[in-house]
Amino acid sequence: MSFYEEIAANKRRTVLLIFFFLVFIIFIGLVLGVYWGNAYGGLILAIIGGGIYFLISYYSGDSMILTMTGAKEAKKPEYTQLINVVEGLMIAAGLGRMPKVYVIEDTALNAFATGRNPENSSIAVTTGLLKKLNKLELEGVIAHEMSHIKNYDIRVMMLASVMVGLSLLLSDFLLRSFLWGRGDNDRDSGQLTIVFIVLGLVLAILAPLIGELMKLAISRKREFLADASGAMLTRYPKGLADALRKIKNDPDPLVDRANRATAHLFISSPFRKEKKSFMKNLFSTHPDIDERIKKLDEM
User: Fold this and answer.
1) Exposed/middle/buried for residue 257 (C-beta within 10 Å: 0-12, 13-18, 19+)
2) Residue 65: pLDDT above 80?
3) What does the alpha-carbon distance between residue 86 and residue 82 come to, in Å, rounded to a whole number?
4) Over the stretch 161-183, which tens digit does the pLDDT of each residue have?
5) Domain residue spans of the chain
6) Computed from CA positions of residues 63, 68, 71, 72, in that sequence, does the dihedral angle turn out positive or negative?
7) Is 214 exposed, middle or buried (0-12, 13-18, 19+ CB in 10 A)?
8) Are 285 and 161 in contact (CB under 8 A)?
9) What's the CA gap between 248 and 196, in Å, rounded?
10) Catalytic residue numbers?
11) What would the pLDDT profile of 221-260 be if each residue is shown by its tens digit?
């Protein structure tokens, strides 16, 4: 898949995510409205509340992520080499604006990109990565993150995260509403109440799970694409492959300020290594790093 095909595919995914987001909001609003005796009121409440949440997350999500991870803006002369590498690869990628550069004070070897589009994007790397990687390896990692920006992966993953977060909030609110009851015992129907409680339980369990699986599936696929795109950008696949080898062998890969909400953004899992299993692989935010290295070695 070419750069242009990937960008077009990610823009289509963006439209689909927004569409499913709206359908989910409307459905939850109608269910709540019917249960509380005012379908239109529930619908309006859900759309307004969901819209506000969406807009705040979409336009401020990258700032929230950078704050959560403890990222600080990189400045010269301390981080001159890093800034120069980002600037050079930005020009090579044909981006019109240089991403903001951040550093996370952490011994782990890791990096990520975030933002809503190439004009509003950021790249963050850990101090451990800067200390352990040589220039060619650092270029490989930055090219990988630059590809996420150029291919609009950052927008898709931010929207997926917004959907997962909102589905958790709404499904939890829906379930609590059913458990609290309407407070109008004369109008309550036992069977109807049971149906709504069951529906609330199903939504509370499945909505976040489906959203999380969707986010993870997109995340795993995009890592292979960003590896290939990054290697094409530097014309030196070995640089990224060697960087991934060092990341794989990192004795302490835990990024202290990382969490489940931001894990999918990093170039490699920011958590401690765990034994492989079917369930671990199902909910893994990243493909197997050995497979990624193998594909790069074959390029």
Assistant:
1) middle
2) yes
3) 6
4) 777 767 777 777 776 776 666 54
5) 3-298
6) positive
7) middle
8) no
9) 48
10) 145
11) 788 889 989 999 999 999 999 999 999 999 999 999 988 7
